[in-house]
Amino acid sequence: MKIDRLFAITNILIQKKTVTAAELAQEFGVSVRTIYRDMDILSSCGIPIFTEKGRNGGISVMDHYTLSKTLLTDEEQNQIIMALQSVNVTGNVEVKDALRKLGNIFQKNIESWIEVDFSEWGKSEEDKEIFYIIRDCILSAQAVTFWYYNGRGEETKRIVEPLKVVFKSMSWYLYGYCRKRKDFRFFKLSRIKNLEVLTDTFDTKIPEEVSFQYKNKFSNIIRLKLKIDRSMGFRVFDEFRSGIITEEKEYFLVDIGLPRSQWLYSYLLGFGETLTVLEPEEIRIEMIDIIKRIEKNYI
What we know:
- 39% of the residues lie in helices and 28% in strands.
- The protein is α+β, with helices and mostly antiparallel strands.
- It folds into 4 domains: 2-61, Winged helix-like DNA-binding domain superfamily/Winged helix DNA-binding domain (Arc Repressor Mutant, subunit A); 74-106, no CATH class; 125-216, Roll (SH3 type barrels); 221-296, Alpha-Beta Plaits (2-Layer Sandwich).
- The strands form 3 sheets. The protein has a 5-stranded antiparallel β-sheet with strand order 7-6-5-4-8.
- Keywords: Transcription, Transcription regulation.
- It holds the Pfam family WYL.
């Protein structure tokens, strides 16, 4: 788009000080005549552009010029700073220097409007390092290899073309193309071990239906009716807001759909004696069987 080119040209002029029309034309794949028309537009917007003939001449902007009050409106400047602050609070992408520089350019107070802690209690430096390595490999389009532990406790070695990191349900995931499975998959970062960067690169594109695929991963939903002690009220309202919650004198009745997998039983058992499965009967039976097997470990 023309506005993108105009913004990029202005940034080049600020950084390089002087550049020729031919160099700009080659950079953006347009004619020299188009570049001169762009210069006229930028000048009409109040940007102090001037040209100098001769061997060392070219196109320049006035020294000490900034973008603070030209191509970006006050609202757009605020939106850029707010977007970078949102990224910064993840703790996994370092943008503090960029925020400080933009604050100076825009002459804005960059006091953050948002505070979010994505970290876990006892999160190790190894977990952070995995995030940084995957982030860099996504940007450089380099494949990675690692050992992965799936939800069934199986350990396999994978070679993956990393495409995106996703934050879902209080956990970070890698989304990429798994060469072993020959398909796009999600990998929970905390289950990745012995991560290594490979020398080969890739040009795999992210499918448009990424979000749909992620939701479809948990498409086997089962409806549950639960009885939960009032002492667990904080968890009821934190974790079951998408269901139907009925408050009784001594307990809550919760009607909710949850993914049917091995995870479900571990999750329900995490409530201990404060939770009782009322329906369906098949889940009640399976819970009883699991509890009996656990009991054998302590007899």
